[in-house]
Amino acid sequence: MAADDTAGLTAGGTTTPRAPDRRPRVVLVDVFGTILRLEVLRNRFVDVGRPADEWAVFFARTLRDGMALTLCGTAPPFGDVARAALRATVGPEVSAEALDHVLAGLRELPPHADVEPALLALAAAKVPVYAFTHGDPGVATAALDRAGLRTYLRKVLSTQEVRAFKPAPRTYLWGCEQVDTPPERTALLAAHSWDVHGAVRAGLIGALATRLEGGLSEVVDPPHVVAERLDAAAAGLLTLPA
């Protein structure tokens, strides 16, 4: 799906031109929710006597607080934000050991079924792929190792290094610096429209898999590629003009 030449604004207020529809040299792939299935955390909540659906409230709070702290300047490490959000979700009566049990589940999340085909396609096309997260890099690495996906990934990049959560523009620009590729030749592949919107606004190529959200939101900048499944979105990136 191609879109018009809308432009974004960086944190400093300067205009960032929309990247042209071009096949990327490098792909950054979001981790939690895109590669890994967060909903299995429901079992951990049940283990500690809490309602299963609190997993969604907990993770939404984590993202909200991390983004808000980033807007204010800098964000604490993901693990600290997540623990505080979990405590706010489950209440003061839940023990610290129970919190540890829930948070440990982030290291054992299984992958979505469309992830390995997406990574295989990018590998076959000789396009380097990096995991790109604002999560704890050790936790993300452990989960990807357990899922058997690290062999497809050059490295796990965490914006925790720049004390910011996505979708702050500096997170995507930092990612491009780490892979030594200009934003307009770097793609973000994700299942969160807000994440892809941030990347597009920062001048990257955006590819959205709509399997989590059911479609493209009307309030975000159109990605360069939109598909239901992650493997189809990856294939769309590969069919962009060279």
Q: What low-confidence regions span 5 or more consecutive residues with pLDDT below 50?
A: 1-7
Distance between the termini: 16 Å
Q: List the secondary-structure elements in sequence, H or E.
A: EEEHHHHHEHEHEHEEH
CATH superfamily of the largest domain: HAD superfamily/HAD-like
- Counting structural domains, the number is 2
The overall average pLDDT, rounded, is 94
Give the helix/strand layout.
Elements: E1 8-9, E2 15-16, E3 26-30, H1 42-47, H2 54-71, H3 78-90, H4 96-104, H5 115-124, E4 129-133, H6 137-146, E5 156-158, H7 169-179, E6 186-190, H8 193-201, E7 205-209, E8 225-227, H9 230-238
Parallel strand pairs: 3-4, 3-6, 4-5, 6-7, 7-8
Antiparallel strand pairs: 1-2
Describe the 3D structure.
The model is unreliable at 1-7 (pLDDT under 50). Strands 5-4-3-6-7-8 form a 6-stranded parallel sheet, sandwiched between helices. The chain starts with 7 loop residues before the first strand and ends with a helix. It has helices spanning 42-47, 54-71, 78-90, 96-104, 115-124, 137-146, 169-179, 193-201, 230-238; strands at residues 8-9, 15-16, 26-30, 129-133, 156-158, 186-190, 205-209, 225-227. The protein is globular, with a radius of gyration of 17 Å. The chain is an alpha/beta fold and 242 residues long. The longest helix is centred in the first third of the chain and has 18 residues, at 54-71. It is 39% helix and 12% strand. The chain has 2 domains: 8-36 and 109-238, Rossmann fold, CATH 3.40.50; 38-108, DNA polymerase, domain 1.
